Amino acid sequence: MRRWLTEGFVLIIAAVVAFPLFWMVLSAFKPEDEIISADPVPWTTRPTLDSFTRALTVANFGRYFMNSIIVALIVVALSILISFLAATALTRFRFRSRTTLLIMLLVVQMVPVEALTVPLFFLMRSVGDSVPVFGLNHLGSLVLVHLAFSLPFAIWMLRGFVAAVPVELEEAATLDGASRFRFLWQVLFPLVAPGLVATSVLSFIHAWNDFLFAKTFIISAVENQTLPLALQVFVKPDQNDWGAIMAGSTLMTIPVLIFFVLVQRRLVSGLAGAVKG
Amino acid sequence: MSVTAKGQGRTAFAYLAPALLILGGLLAYPIYQLVLISLYDYGQEQVSGGAPLEFLGLGNYRNLLGNQQFWGVLGQTVAFAAVCVVGTLLVGAFLAILATRVRTWVRMTLFLAALGAWSTPAVAGSTIWLFLFDANFGFVNEVLGIQGFSWTFDKWTAFGLVAAQVIWCSFPFVMVTLFAGIKAIPGEVLEAAALDGASAFRTAWSVTLPLLKPIILVVTIQSIIWDFKVFTQIYVMTNGGGIAGRNLVLNVYAYQQAFAASEYGLGAAIGVVMTVLLLGITMFYLRALRRSGEVL
């Protein structure tokens, strides 16, 4: 009897926690007159794709969706390459400044990146003078900052995965005549792939969710905005098009949700690994 | 030996070069620049080259510490973060304990719902909550029968709404981590306590809690770090810091000073203050990590 009560209570909590997301998807499919009704109801009898159509055409969400995807995917690809090389160097080689670098990697993760908006804004401004693609108002500037922010954690996390690959394997590969380059990309790289998946998801989500830097860097080039910023632009004090906003929110949440479900086990064990007692 | 060591060092730095280049240029250099800019009077005229740069030394900081609004915002930030942290921990711990007492399918339902809240991007989450609590079309006001009541107009209901949203998307981390911690306690330990005649409460208080202490410490400090620098939720839900800036927290304050008021020097100084505060918390974090057995 008591277990039934507890389980009922837990299910109610789960429903409350899930409710905002349910409301988002529901509102995205509601016809407009039901959304701006004074008596909203938690169901709809006339589901429609109108809101999605409006979001994608009028608000041009498709374009911003692509911008977000481009930034996030480039960040993921580059951070995989760079952090893999760096993690290999930090685990497989012994050199003098190794420990110093490791400590700096840890400390740098603690710096609140939000505080760096001012210097980064001016840095991107001057970078833009010589290389416009990486300057203000261009997606390149977002790629650069998110790459920098995701690298320390990615290197830190990959280090463990590289260290787990036995050194004997490298010796065997060398004896078989594999060059260091071949060993790196054809033996080591596939072996640390699980670690790469976990770090890539975190880099992807970081870049995908970013609001502050998109807002700071993409000032006047409307065509280069990313999803979080575009969503915010359509929230006006009155006359909100809630249907389109909810459709846009749904489009923005789905990729992250898919990623999270795919890697939740690895993510949780990775995070739990960092805090294990 | 020394030849190989040298060769190793050279290869290692070749591998490290791209990472060092990016981190040096886009993290280390901006940190240096942040401190530098905070020492200057750096406004719109200086940026456009219309006026010469004026070195102020600690002038921006003196300005800040003598400004009543800064102290108000600092107090609000600490109070807001405290409410979010306490709320997140209570909700997360409570649900983690409940999760150990239900059947698997019930637990999976709860975790799935939590996963959804966890993965919702901050901007999307903020707009959903705004819509749910909308004065005229919101479902919450309909249920409560208070249509026309604006949650974001009053300072305290606005802060409360944002805090609720922050707790909603950050309790899953605490819940999942604590649940894993509870599950990792060997059954024999609890059985031994039961055999020795300890009550359920006594077992929880004297056995489970001490064993979980390292994990609780780490999730607490992690939550403090996260909630101290909330930006998106405050910015989106209170429309940039509320009416007359009464819902500002440090992060949004720094942004507004720099990019809305063009007081870049002052904005940078606020950034430095925030960094120093967070590094202080981080020192605790590192000590906690070391005590819980994590090694470099």
Automatic annotation (TrEMBL), chain A:
GO biological-process terms attached to the record: transmembrane transport
Keyword list, A-Z: Cell membrane, Membrane, Transmembrane, Transmembrane helix, Transport
Record-annotated ABC transmembrane type-1 domain positions: 65-263
Pfam families associated with the record: BPD_transp_1
InterPro entries membership: BP-dep_ABC_trans_perm (IPR050901), MetI-like (IPR000515), MetI-like_sf (IPR035906)
Location within or outside the cell: Cell membrane
GO cellular component, one term: plasma membrane
Topology class, membrane: Multi-pass membrane protein
Membrane-spanning parts: 9-29, 64-90, 102-123, 143-162, 183-205, 242-263
Entries under PROSITE patterns matching the protein: ABC_TM1
SUPFAM superfamilies in the cross-refs: MetI-like (SSF161098)
Main location as per UniProt: membrane
Family recorded in the similarity comment: Belongs to the binding-protein-dependent transport system permease family.
Record's protein name: Carbohydrate ABC transporter membrane protein 2, CUT1 family
Organism: Lentzea xinjiangensis
Organismal lineage: Bacteria, Bacillati, Actinomycetota, Actinomycetes, Pseudonocardiales
